[in-house]
Design brief:
heterodimer; A: 279 residues; mainly alpha; B: 335 residues; alpha/beta; six-stranded mixed beta sheet; four-stranded antiparallel beta sheet; 11 helices
Chain lengths: 279, 335
């Protein structure tokens, strides 16, 4: 069995392990696994696209009764939200559950990677894929629908960071209440439904009664989605579009509620995440 | 043995003092898995933790590896707290858990590549795979490996960073005899190069074969510890036999031995096997008695282990950790 000597310290030793190297190593392994898992790949790639196709008719019908609704901008914004909800939140919940079940997370914790790196490394392919799909949706959508250039890209970026962070943390929380990959379809339902119906993806907030829209603005993913919309189009639908400077005032409350949700979700992840299966 | 005498404080790679681990809430609803364990392992030493299932071996290992914080007591590995100062400790140790933990859909190479990226100063992957004899299986998916091959992959990953301290939790469980012998050779070779090894096993043979020193755990405590010779020392040899139906003839007097009877089956425990056996056989010869199912054996680690396990089973450990110090020996520190 041992032709090589265990002593052979003469052979080269690899470099120091850094956080970046660990994230890339984990992300690469996780990407390979995603490519080999047809079900996960289908959910990540095709499902959001199918939903986006359905969105168009849904929004057009709503526009008939609400003449002020800008269907094109709502469509692009909702598609981006849909992609993030499925690819980051749903897909990642399943990945955490699968790795926990195979004792991979427990084994990883014996190495040099810190807990946060293990969670983030597992999320690398989901987040990368979601960003790629968002870019495609954004670029294709903008050119096909002849949309204007983003008014405040910084707010878009802030919205993306907030929503991706919140969804990652929520995936970690949801995985704690999910025993098997199969049951992830059920356990992720509440947050998926909430983000689609309550965060302005399927029903834009300006279509809702005022009281209901106010409540929906407080939901976990609403502020971040509103920031993305505001950053691109200069309005979150509650007032007329403004320019770069004007968007900050509208953005302030969204930034605050979005950050609070990110902090709450991160706290939940730290509190509830399980590194190994229940026995 | 010299190894234990050589043990100066600077040489102590692992030091455990009054370690406790409690699961769940305090009180009767919780479970007190580790109850005041003391251990010291010197540089280059191979130390084995033995014990029945549920004795607390793995719970203790996990605390020493820094995977969890102890409920009480202190752990030092290479002079650091392995839980709080994990960044200082992890690059210098290698850990093999009781059960794998590699995604089934990755190949051996892909698994190794990702672990190399997470290990400081990793040796070339092929070298690690060659050490455990998996080089020919590098393109096979982990889920298609046999149980033994998966154990060896686990070992290869633990060896990737050329660790100074190696933790092996039941390394040879599930291996066939040939693979086990190969793992033993490899572990001995690593030890010869100065790697400190802490392993758990329930193969007594494995401990006898590999360990410089060992500790036997039961009920979350170290019941006895030392070199194999020290653990066996003081344990009586044992003779068992059956007597046919007989009348009149009384049993022989066997000086220094202790005889217990269970129906017609007798067990003699003696500190001096040869003398007692000579007396017994002389008596049988003289009285023309046939000793049925005669068995005589010196104290072995197995004997000691079974005796300790059954003794301890009759005296369930008290919940107060301070009580049973009489049977608990400070290993290394006491020397």
């Amino acid at each position: 069995m041992t032709t090589a000597s265990a002593a052979s310290a003469v052979t080269a030793a690899g470099p120091q392990s850094t956080a970046v190297r660990r994230l890339l190593a984990l992300g690469r392994a996780e990407a390979t696994l995603l490519l080999r898992n047809r079900t996960a790949l289908f959910t990540a790639l095709l499902l959001p696209l199918l939903l986006v196709a359905g969105l168009h008719s849904l929004l057009t019908r709503q526009a008939e009764s609400n003449p002020g609704l800008d269907v094109d901008s709502a469509l692009v914004n909702s598609s981006v939200g849909m992609v993030l909800a499925f690819v980051v939140y749903y897909n990642l919940t399943g990945a955490y559950v699968a790795r926990r079940g195979e004792l991979v997370l427990k084994r990883l914790r014996t190495g040099e990677a810190r807990d946060i790196e293990i969670l983030a490394g597992t999320a690398v392919p989901s987040v990368a894929l979601a960003l790629m799909m968002c870019t495609v949706v954004g670029v294709v959508g903008a050119s096909a629908l002849k949309l204007s250039a983003p008014v405040n890209p910084l707010l878009m970026l802030a919205g993306l960071v907030l929503v991706i962070g919140t969804l990652m943390a929520l995936a970690a929380v949801s995985s704690a209440f999910t025993r098997t990959v199969e049951s992830a379809g059920i356990t992720t339902m509440p947050i998926l439904l909430l983000s689609q119906f309550g965060s302005g993806l399927l029903i834009p907030l300006e279509v809702m009664p005022d009281r209901m829209a106010d409540i929906c603005r407080l939901l976990p993913t609403t502020p971040a989605f509103q920031l993305i919309r505001l950053g691109w189009f200069g309005t979150d639908g509650s007032a007329a579009a403004t320019g770069f400077a004007g968007t900050w005032a509208t953005a302030a409350p969204h930034l605050v509620t979005g950050s609070i949700w990110l902090a709450l979700a991160a706290w939940g992840a730290v509190r509830y995440f399980r590194w190994e299966p229940r026995r | 043995m010299e190894t234990s005498q050589r043990l100066h404080s600077t040489d102590r790679v692992i030091e455990v003092t009054d370690l406790h681990r409690r699961y769940g809430p305090a009180g009767a609803t919780g479970y007190h898995a580790v109850r005041g364990v003391d251990l010291a392992v010197g540089r280059g030493e191979l130390f084995a933790l033995l014990g029945t299932n549920g004795a607390g071996k793995t719970s203790t290992m996990e605390l020493i590896e820094g995977l969890a914080a102890p409920s009480g007591g202190q752990v030092r590995v290479l002079g650091h707290d392995p839980y709080r100062e994990r960044a200082a400790v992890r690059p210098r140790i290698g850990i093999m858990l009781q059960e794998g933990g590699f995604p089934g859909d990755l190949t051996v190479t892909e698994t190794g590549r990702s672990w190399s990226g997470m290990t400081s100063g990793a040796r070339p992957l092929d070298e690690a795979l060659e050490l455990v004899g998996l080089i020919g299986r590098r393109d096979v998916r982990v889920k298609q490996l046999s149980g033994g091959e998966r154990r060896r992959l686990d070992l290869a990953m633990a060896l990737l960073g050329r660790p100074e301290v190696l933790f092996l939790d039941e390394p040879s469980t599930g291996l066939d005899p040939e693979a086990r012998a190969a793992v033993w050779r490899l572990v001995r070779e690593l030890r010869a190069q100065g790697t400190t090894v802490l392993l758990t096993t329930h193969y007594l043979e494995e401990a006898e074969e590999l360990a410089d020193r060992l500790a036997i755990m039961h009920g979350g405590q170290v019941v006895t510890a030392g070199t194999v010779a020290e653990v066996i020392a003081g344990r009586p040899s044992r003779i068992t036999f059956e007597l046919p139906e007989f009348a009149g003839t009384s049993l022989p007097t066997l000086p220094g031995a202790e005889i217990t009877a269970d129906g017609r089956r007798f067990t003699v425990q003696t500190p001096s096997l040869q003398a007692t056996l000579t007396d017994l056989l002389g008596w049988a010869n003289h009285h023309r008695v046939v000793l049925g199912a005669l068995d005589a054996r010196s104290a072995s680690l197995e004997e000691a282990f079974l005796a300790i396990a059954s003794e301890a089973a009759h005296q369930p450990p008290a919940d107060t950790p301070a009580a049973p110090t009489a049977r608990r020996r400070l290993i290394g520190l006491a020397r």
